[in-house]
Amino acid sequence: MSATDANAEANGGRPERPARERIVEALLALAAEREAEGAHVWASIGIADIAERAGVSLAEFLSAFPSKGAVLGGFARMIDMKVLASHAVRDDDMGGEPARERLFDIVMMRLDHMAPYRAGLRVIYAGVRREPLTIAALNKAAQNSWRFMLTAAGIDTEGPMGALRVQGAALLFARTVETWLYDDDPGQAKTLARLDRELDRGGRALALANDAWRLTSPLRRLACAVLDRGGKARKPGPAAPAGDAGDAAPEAREAAG
């Protein structure tokens, strides 16, 4: 009997959740259970441990995720889907709010959906922060997430300024999560204060970037015009017909004689 069949039998024949979801939740559950072991828990959890807990074979694990770190990207995507589904229900209530309030709402909605996994995330965060390559991969996943989160909030994500907004939102959220992970107050006072500070900081940085982008607009147009003219000047003319070269050859020989 395969691991998947065993899992289905254990569920009394009920439809199983997707393997990706079970793998994500298995990793977070294992991390939460080993919280007392400290910062080395992340390194101690192996792919085989996760597969066994999720009730999947290694082949099924590989089909879902190429690595343990990729499971964290899967968690981010799972939260993305939950936030977007929740936001679709509440969108009418936030449509007329300022961008700051819409972003605040998205961040808090995301934290609410992450709350059941906080213990596991706290352990994983302590271990992952020691791995620069994993952090870089997670930042890429965060950018993908926040491109959709900002779009849901009605904030433009296209072009250079849009890319800056996406990266800024990812950093804002990461810094807020640093506080949220250890904020046990039911009112989340520390988290709310941190989010307010990060929104203020992000707003100032974005305003400066907008000013710089607007002020350099004439220079960018000039540079584009110069490059365009330069490209046209370097464009080669049509090649001489082969017959012209042949006709000139006898004259050259006669002059040489």
What's the architecture in CATH terms? Orthogonal Bundle
Number of domains: 1
| Global morphology | globular
Low-pLDDT residue spans: 248-257
What is the CATH superfamily classification? Answer: Tetracycline Repressor, domain 2
The percentage helix is over 70%
CATH class: Mainly Alpha
Organism: Camelimonas lactis
Protein name: TetR family transcriptional regulator
Region (Disordered): 230-257
InterPro entries: Homeodomain-like_sf
Describe the structure.
- The protein has 257 residues and is mainly alpha-helical.
- The protein has a single domain (3-215), classed as Orthogonal Bundle (Tetracycline Repressor, domain 2).
- 77% of the residues lie in helices and 0% in strands.
- It is built from 13 helices and no strands.
- The chain has helices at 3-10, 19-33, 41-44, 47-54, 58-64, 68-94, 99-114, 118-128, 132-152, 159-180, 189-215, 217-234, 242-256.
- α2 (19-33) crosses α4 (47-54), α6 (68-94) crosses α7 (99-114) and α10 (159-180) runs antiparallel to α11.
- The protein is globular, with a radius of gyration of 28 Å.
- The protein starts with a helix and ends with a helix.
